[in-house]
Amino acid sequence: MRRTVFNEDHEAFRETIRAFIEAEVVPVYDEWFAAGQAPRDFYYKLGELGIFGINVPEEFGGAGLDTHKFEAVLYEETSRAGVQFGGSGVHVLLALPYIKMLATDEQKKRYLPKFVSGEEMWALAMTEPGTGSDVAGMKTTAKLSEDGTHYVLNGAKTFITGGVHADRVIVCARTSAPSEQDRRFGISLFAVDTKSEGYSIGRKLDKLGLRTSDTAELAFVDVKVPVEDLLGEEGKGFYYLGHNLASERWGIAFGAYAQAKAAVRFAQQYVQERTVFGKPVAHFQNTKFELAACQAEVDAAEAVADRALEALDAGELTPAEAASAKLFCTEVAHRVIDRCLQLHGGYGYMNEYPIARLYADNRVNRIYGGTSEIMKSIIAKSMGL
Fold it and tell me: Annotated catalytic sites, by residue?
């Protein structure tokens, strides 16, 4: 089946990324895995490579493109190699859309050059202990000072990917209480400098998967946030969050498809090399049938992921379509990776094999960005149910 989503520029980028991964990531990846995070200086290398600036306007040091296709190539190439680029995905996929959509010209001049170079890494702090997917239930507050020069931030966040290395974090906080008619009212977004007094990083969370992507708890005790770091209008934060959910869910969907594709590749290589009862595992009919079924599922997921990518680039990806793509691709990846691990036998359970790490990494796809159950609710609502 001929694929039409990528052109020569994307394929040239793919070659560059593949070579970069082989030279800069694969040789040290076990060290990152053991440490539970990529080193901070790695992000400067990504900045030099131009990865952070692809969708940033040229006046701020970027390439000035408006597409997610280079991100898609990154998903495919990192999965293919069985590696991750630490918390950099959050920097580009989650944080950048808010800066581009909400920042004033003055803010863009301050934020974007350092964003592109990797000098300032960004994260998004939405989830709170005890609230989970209920964003409207957040308790973190930001109260305007009497002289109107700054907000005073108090509260806590958890599951913040990139939270350990972040230099700025987009924090969601209540600037006013929810109204009786609308629980979502009164939430605002702030670009918080992590060096601010009263800002602290709690535990670096010990996760099942995504081991090289630092995830942390954050706490704010009377943190002074200058009014110049309010993103967008006060009180409209929930609307802004909803605006970018489609691109976030596309990213999870595409990443899951890429993981499933990589799992088939790993299993295919393994069964051809591994010998059982004097024959390669690939010789047995069950192996052939299992991999053929997995390949068929990956083909379907690729079509769904590509279609969502084209719609996203065209500005036409609806919330229901993004939810559908995320639900389908993450469920496919779950099934495919599990079956591919089974074909590895006992070795599939060992972390030295990429399939084992992939199995653990993949599990969160059906949780973050909205659980599979929430995706079903969104799809059902779009059906008028």
Answer: 248
